[in-house]
Amino acid sequence: MKPETLLRAILPDVLIDNFDIVNFEKSDNRFDIWLDEKKVRLREDKYISYKWDLSEHDHTRLNAEFVAFLKEGD
Known about the structure:
single chain; 74 residues; alpha+beta; two-stranded antiparallel sheet; rod-shaped
């Protein structure tokens, strides 16, 4: 059996699902495991986007509501 296979059997699934085993070392009194976090997008991670009607503001990227907000700060 490969050592990495054994580690996967010992470690909790949450670690295996979210981390890659980078390295491991065993000494007389210690077992060190290096983990690297996987870059995984979860279903709970949602993209937020807005669709703005910019037709009334030719050649701009700002909508009327945002422009009014900026003007309030002056």
